[in-house]
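Today's session is about reading a structure prediction critically. Students often jump straight to the picture, but the first step is always the sequence itself: look for stretches that repeat, for charged clusters, for runs of hydrophobic residues. Only then move on to the predicted structure, which in these notes is written as discrete structure tokens rather than atom positions. Here is the chain we will use throughout the hour.
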Amino acid sequence: MHDVVVPPNPGEQPPVPAAPASSQAPVESAPASLGQPEPLDAAGGRPTPPEPAQAPGSGDPAVPPPPPVGSPAAPRATDGALSQAGLDLLTFFLDDGAAGGELDTLGHWLQGFEDRAAAVGLSLNRGKCRLSVAPGATIPEALQGIETFPLDDIQHLGVPCGSPETMRAFVEEAAKSAERKMRMIASLPDAHVALTLLKFCAGFVSVVHLMRAVGAVFDFACIDQATQSCLATITGIETDASAWALASLPVRLGGLGLHSCADTAAIAHIAATFDGEACLPSLVTPYVLPHAMLLDEDDTFLASLEDPRLAPFESVLEKIQNVLQARDNYGGRGQKVWSATVHDERRKALLISMTEELGRSGRLQGSALALKQVQVRARIQSCSAQHASAWLYGNAEADPRLWLSPAELAVAIRLRLGLPIAPMPSICRLCGTGSADVDGVHARSCFSGGRRTRMHNALRDVIADFARRGLLAPAVERPVFSNTERKRPDISYVRDGTTVVLDVAVTFPLQPSNPQYAKRAAEKPGGAATAYATAVKEVHQYC
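Below is the predicted structure for this chain, in token form.
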């Protein structure tokens, strides 16, 4: 069990002692015995709770404790001690649980819990329990021996739930821990493995649970800075503002998937708040449920709603307002839905800013500027195509030779982010005539050196190998039509009496010799390949 802040009873002052009893006790039968919340009355509201009795030694109302264990009514009393009667909060998650309420009531509940555990041969490990209490509270005998903490320092499942000061200190320490982890990852000798660990084990993913808990109250920009620094150490690439904005986009949008914590914290907390509201009926008793979460009084929630980073995304704010009114958080998918919308709009804004920056720089004019602006959009769209990012984070089950060397990885990341791969242009060493630009456009489209042919043949052979595994008996580069010997399809096979021919091509969407490919690629992912396939079908008629 863990620590939980107990909400005050409605219409009353908060109780001086408020404590959860918790432990990692292996009481497997306990969750099945938990009571259910009271049903709604005919008017749709919750029934008015009975007037509670005064707890001994307390000026606040409390539900009368169950009869002492050992009396004739002991079995029913023990079952009642495991229900929500008398407690403000009771919840279990796997082997963790939390209970909250008046200290005397909580002591009676814990005593009944231990008795029920003993009846099935189990015991509660009090050494793993934590008791969070208000300052000056008197601990009843039933709760003696359990380590106590102030309510301000309370934590639950690795999330701070106390005062704003202790929450801030907790998150600052978590941020330092995340930064240390990223420094260790950056020191690994294998750059590709290090990049994969950065994406899936550090940075955003390591603090997303904290963002859902504290929202925009804490500035998570330090995590973003550490992630950017870790990427620079791994790849040797210092990213400018535009390149880092692109790197923080999801892989499906042409980025590196290194999500920005600062841009996501508010959305994460808003979504978690709605998710938590939906779970409240199973966590707190009907007596405190109407007052357990008042969103218009939750400072952290309101701060997240007013986060200036959300201001540019009007469509997201509109969706959030709709959820506030309907109380339907997309079935618990609010964070995913809103984050996806923010990422889409951020990419649109980034494309506009990158193309406008090219015009403001003054380095290009006229048709050269127009072509470069189209190529920027074509590059990002092409990186968004299905399977275009399969190389990015490797594959533990693939041939180790498919993992990139540090030099290969650095060049591939630079090309993806639109960063130069050379300090200055030079004459191409292969063709001797073309200018090898710093962006690598000529290097990837030069016809000399045989690289394009080797790439084509390698892809053709892979497809043919898959066809052989499917028992299709493919033929490679073999004439299949009597009217010509020149038109040899890359791959052909016979299926149900019909000859099927395949043409393999590797299309570079940015090639300057055919700007139409760049225009088609800028319109949608895979646009250049689709344009080439259409042209091939029109020119080469095999029958």
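Discussion point for the tutorial: The first helix runs from residue 74 to 81.
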